[in-house]
Amino acid sequence: GILNKLDYIKSLGASIIQLSPIFKSSSCHKYDTGNYEFIDEMFGTNDEFKKLCEVAESKGIKIILDVVLSYTSSDSKYFNKLGTYNDIGAYQSPNSEYHDWYKFNIYPYQYESWWGITERPNVNSMEKGYIKYIIKDDNSIIKKWIDFGAYGWRLNVIDELPDEFIEIIRTRMQEINKDVVLLGDLWDDASNKISYSKRRKYLQGKEVQAVTNYPLRECLITFTKIYIPSD
User: C-alpha dihedral over 132, 122, 65, 214, to 10 degrees?
Assistant: First the structure.
């Protein structure tokens, strides 16, 4: 339905639309990706996304995608715990091409997951095969969707991603299209963040170009509640 609302969105003065995750997923929120290669049927098709980008750009509006790269869904082509996909997932066989993406403690039943939620197995983002698939290959996920017309990526929970991984994405994006932007999702002060006992480098020029500023948001909300009369 976004295509039908582009003129209205433009009338509001907006020049950017940031979409929440739209890749194939079995959940309603889509933050646990099942397949990075396809738009979820709930929203449309790959061709419709390409058309959205083309029409939006003709109206002076850029599309930015939200993506989670620190974990996938357990119900994904990569992990395939439920056997939903035809691909041999990491949970199904240690010989799976995706096996080394994940961190198994006792195969296959015990594995690292996001906040202990077993439906969201953590990914070893610095694993070579994962980096090739997501970033470096000629048909990588990053390149695929930029070629479709996306003008930016918002990396969800960037404190779960190593600095080196974020740098690789930024470098690759700039090679594909120097106008594409990289944003980061972070709840704390990105300029002085310590994550997993390591001071992070988000805003030192090689990683994201901007972050979600939740501390400022809280200050503005508090200021509004305290100092602006309700009547």
Answer: -130
Which residues are CB-contacts of 176 (< 8 A; sequence separation ≥ 6)? 142, 143, 146, 147
Instruction: Please give the helix or strand (H or E) that residue 222 lies within, else none.
Output: helix 214-227
116/94 Cα distance (integer angstroms): 22
What single-letter DSSP state applies at residue 122?
B
Quote the CA–CA distance of 21 and 40 in Å, as a whole number.
9
From residue 140, give the alpha-carbon distance in Å to each of 12, 37, 146, 182, 188. 34, 9, 10, 16, 30
> Cβ-count burial of 163 within 10 angstroms (0-12 exposed, 13-18 middle, 19+ buried)?
middle
Cβ burial, residue 223 (10 Å; 0-12/13-18/19+): exposed
pLDDT tens, 128-171?
A: 999 999 999 999 999 999 999 999 999 999 999 999 999 999 99
Report the distance separating Cα 164 and Cα 214, nearest Å.
24
Q: For the whole model, what pTM was predicted?
A: 0.92
CB 182 within 8 A of CB 170: yes
Reading the block at residue 187, the tokens are 């709840």
